[in-house]
Design brief:
- There is one protein chain.
- By secondary structure, the protein is an alpha/beta fold.
- It has three domains: 169 residues, P-loop containing nucleotide triphosphate hydrolases (Rossmann fold, 3-Layer(aba) Sandwich); 93 residues, no CATH class; 111 residues, no CATH class.
- It has 19 helices and ten strands.
- The strands form three sheets. The chain has a six-stranded parallel sheet with strand order 1-10-2-9-6-3, with helices on one face. A two-stranded antiparallel ribbon has the order 4-5. It has a two-stranded antiparallel sheet with strand order 7-8.
- α9 runs antiparallel to α11, α11 crosses α12 and α15 runs parallel beside α17.
- The longest helix has 24 residues.
Length: 410
Amino acid sequence: MCAVKIFTRVLTVTLLNQFLSWSKNLKKQASEVTIHELREIIEKYITGSENLNYAIKILGHPGVGKSAIVKEIADKMNYYFIDTRLAFKENVDLGGYPVPDHETRQMIYFRPKFIPPLNIPEGYNGILWFLDESNRAHPTVIQTLFQIITENKCGEHPLNKKTSIILAGNLGDEDDTTITQFDDSALDGRLAIFHLKPTAKDWLVWGYSEGIHPYILKYISSFPEKLWDEEKINPNPRGWHQVSNALKYSYNLIDEQSLKEHLADRGETTLEKMIYTLVGNIAGSDFIMQLTSPRQISSEDILSGNQEKLNKLKSRDIPSEDFLWALNGTIEIMEDKAIASRGSLKEDDLVLLGNVLTFIGYSRGDIRMSYFFLLLKQCGIFTLIPAALKSLNNSELTEALRQRFENLLN
């Protein structure tokens, strides 16, 4: 009898896991996009939304810039922007509060103030309704979203035909949800879903235009992998923006020199603790260390093939811990590029890979072996190595590296 119970439990758990796996596969897959790509997608959507039968949903980890991008585009296109947090709304909030009409002896619903007005406000080209935190919305609100998208109505209240709808939701370690978590495949089919993965290049362009603190821009330029950590959430673009504001407005440290003097004169300061809480201890401590006692090589040095740094590496004048720190970041960057290109790197990226192989090839023997195989494992670019070495346009260097790596493979 006991064996039957155990078998029944095991079978139940197995079937449940199979069902969960099956139901997860039914969810609509999000397309990964960069900030630049998302801007173009949203602009095209707004331009034609009056004649489109779908809405846009943006997924992304907290702090990657979803709401900021949408607001920026609304301003650029002169659209009246409305930001609604669905986590704090119930179905009755969207539909309006019922009040009696004594003349008709019927209940009527007053139009909620926070939903888009029926008429476009004077001076605007249209309305952009941004529905954030949709992954945390109550199931009854999800049904109202279906009506908003398919009927261009919110409860009994019609929306202006030039109202564009964009939804957003956060992703995290314990928050890997999409709009389909309520098994509403009908709504799922009316959404174009995109997963925003910001790149340092895009963020730096934005950062220069927004006046982000110059040392933060310098740091992210040198260590682009420190912009955000997809697995640990921190650091992230929002956190670096917050650090910038703290430096400029709370501590009045407007440039690199004043920041360096502040940190050098006081030992551990409240500013350091502020940085740690905004971008995390690891990124925060490295950010400070790069200013007070900088590492002798960066990920950017490796990716760009900095000849001066390569010569120092050959003569063993770069501390191993500095080189390993930069190399780890470099492999993270190359892994992202390999994933984005589905294992087929662009010509410019092949040059970057060639530079990475050059630095690995001239590193200490144990480092060379470990990181060569780590590069192959993490990035899956074994077949691209000949093309990457050829991109160096130096036959002597290519042959020397080929022999070094062949020795490892043999």
